[in-house]
Amino acid sequence: MRRAKQNPLITIKDIKPTHPSLKVDGVFNCGATKYNNQYILLLRIAESAISEDGYIKVPVLENKKLQIKLIDKNDKNLDFRDSRTIKNTESKVEYLTSLSHFRRAYSNDGIHFTVDKEPWIYPESEMESWGIEDPRVTHVLDKYLITYTAVSKHGVSVGLIETKDFISYERKGIILPVDNKDVSILPEKINGKYFMYHRPVPNDIGYPNMWSASSLDLTHWGEHKILLTVDENDWENGRIGGGAPSVKTNRGWLHIYHAANKDSVYKLGAFLTSLDDPTKILYKTSEPILSPFETYELHGFFGNVVFTCGIILESDEIKIYYGAADDKICLATISLDEIYQKLKPFRG
Amino acid sequence: MRRAKQNPLITIKDIKPTHPSLKVDGVFNCGATKYNNQYILLLRIAESAISEDGYIKVPVLENKKLQIKLIDKNDKNLDFRDSRTIKNTESKVEYLTSLSHFRRAYSNDGIHFTVDKEPWIYPESEMESWGIEDPRVTHVLDKYLITYTAVSKHGVSVGLIETKDFISYERKGIILPVDNKDVSILPEKINGKYFMYHRPVPNDIGYPNMWSASSLDLTHWGEHKILLTVDENDWENGRIGGGAPSVKTNRGWLHIYHAANKDSVYKLGAFLTSLDDPTKILYKTSEPILSPFETYELHGFFGNVVFTCGIILESDEIKIYYGAADDKICLATISLDEIYQKLKPFRG
């Protein structure tokens, strides 16, 4: 695994806020694909309101318009310890500190990117009133499918948007209800069905595990099955979830996933399924393939995080675009051979 | 609303345990339909292991076989206060105290039922290793669809089983991932799509609200939308969820749902949607139509509960089969006119 020496490729300094009262907290967790011979990243941009003494200002959408809520920093019924959220006494999230949207970034070499000055896709529906996050892009036939996390007071659900040209797009609704995220769709039908990986978070019983599901039309999903559980290794015993959409290799579907331990240190791993059945893991890395190490991964809006939503396979080499410390876009490359060497038979 | 004077219709005395080491804790929350001019109830039967001094015995399936786990009653890391569950220090459910399966009950008059002496559908898959619960039966064309709660250490998900004759049946897999339950499917296509109501329980953000979803084939579901939230009235501010499958009336689709307040007192309410669009509530009862009142509703395995999974509409009268205090089957009848009088315009 080699980190690009130009890392971080994109930082908050490269991003213009959407509104004078907002500042950019992070540009991270991007979808990645190629279109018209260019590299395209679909960036998650998180913005927060510039706070004033004694108050935190929280951006939310109400009736499709940006509103700024004033939250008293001394409110003893609220918990401000996590930089990403404000929780109530029951540990339920009452507010997110930032509101995320998506922008495009273009590059001819996969390293130097030009970023849109305006949002491309901004949260819109009631289910997106706290933002849209973590886009994954899958190229299926003549379409690019964007799966993303839709956040609101109702919870964390999964939306689907389609584009053919990265200019116009169409919202296809909520494809998985709360709480679910980390959805990536495989790029072609397998035995007549599309497949996805998803990561529900159960409330009463169970832990944040990875599941598979199938679809005939990409908007209606079923045949939900457990794929990978958190009780594997120390570095992945907190939560796991899909990363970038799987890529097709001679040896099977290769998937890069993320995993966090109980201290929320996020690392990347990989697994391989047969080309015939992406619902069963045959080989898996027992050690992470990328862990927070560089300063830009250890420190940031939320430190100790490497997290990918987008990879590109070219000439037996995988470009992994990843969010570092929840505020920067970075690149690491790894050969298929190097990943194959790290894969071990998985008892399933 | 008139309770049957024969209530309770079925109690644990009417149920033979499946195994000498088990006792029946409850017979409740039944699906209801008519088949071959008979009334059929699909009963949820909960069984627990007969415990011994100092230990609670917990029945679970392992490799499809019944296993009895011994749980030390003095284990200070476990919380035994809820009769239905054993929780760990993080309030996660570690065990259910009982394991549920389904049996059929038949009747010519809708009041006097003959109950199967053996299970009809017993938990089987990994997702059902802690039991199958709360079946709803919808008659669609030549099939009867059974939606049910599949419980395991992985969480609470929703399974689908089809039968044509209430003898043989076919498992159709998990149609909604964790945590979700209270699923009822509407009995016909509306504008080319099937519809269901479901009730996910989000973990980090949001509350147990009712949602709608659509399907073309009954096994793959999408277009998830919020239908009804818990922030309505005192008696329904804890959790709400679908009851029996909706019935078609001249005025629209009528649905009987359940709601609990924050003290877990379960009551029934009703709402009406247009026949064209079951995803928007037009009228709703602001007061419950049935509340725990009789001794058999106030006291039992889990008291203060009335909960329905099955109703039958005949001659402008609705038969509501309901679980009372999580251990008995009861019947109450109400005319459509009486429900209409209680319905109020819903601002939705």
In short:
Two copies of one chain form a homodimer. With 348 residues, chain A is mostly beta strands.
Can you offer a commentary on this structure?
The structure is a homodimer of 348-residue chains. Helices cover 3% and strands 52% of the residues of chain A. Chain A has two helices and 26 strands. Chain A is globular, with a radius of gyration of 19 Å. The model of chain A has no long low-confidence stretch (mean pLDDT 96). Chain A has 348 residues and is mainly β. Chain A has one domain (2-345): Tachylectin-2, Chain A. In chain A, strands 18, 19, 20, 21, 22 and 26 form a six-stranded antiparallel β-sheet that branches. Chain A has helices at 295-298, 336-342; strands at residues 2-3, 22-35, 38-49, 55-62, 65-72, 85-87, 93-96, 99-107, 114-115, 131-140, 143-152, 155-163, 170-176, 180-185, 194-200, 210-215, 221-228, 239-242, 247-249, 252-260, 266-273, 281-285, 306-314, 317-324, 328-335, 343-345. In chain A, β20 and β21 form a beta hairpin.
Write down the overall mean pLDDT of chain A: 96
Largest interface (C-beta under 8 Å): A-B, 44 and 44 residues
What CATH calls the topology of chain A is: Tachylectin-2, Chain A
Largest sheet of chain A: 6 strands, antiparallel
Net shape of chain A: globular
- One letter per element, helices H and strands E, the order of chain A comes to EEEEEEEEEEEEEEEEEEEEEEHEEEHE
Q: What's the CATH C level of chain A? A: Mainly Beta
* Spans of at least 5 consecutive residues with low confidence of chain A: none
Describe the oligomeric state of these chains in a short phrase.
homodimer
Question: What is the number of helical segments of chain A per DSSP (H or I, 4+ residues)?
Answer: 2
> Considering the protein shown, what is the CATH homologous superfamily of chain A?
Glycosyl hydrolase domain, family 43
Rg of chain A from C-alpha positions? 19 Å
Give the helix level of chain A as a range of percent. under 10%
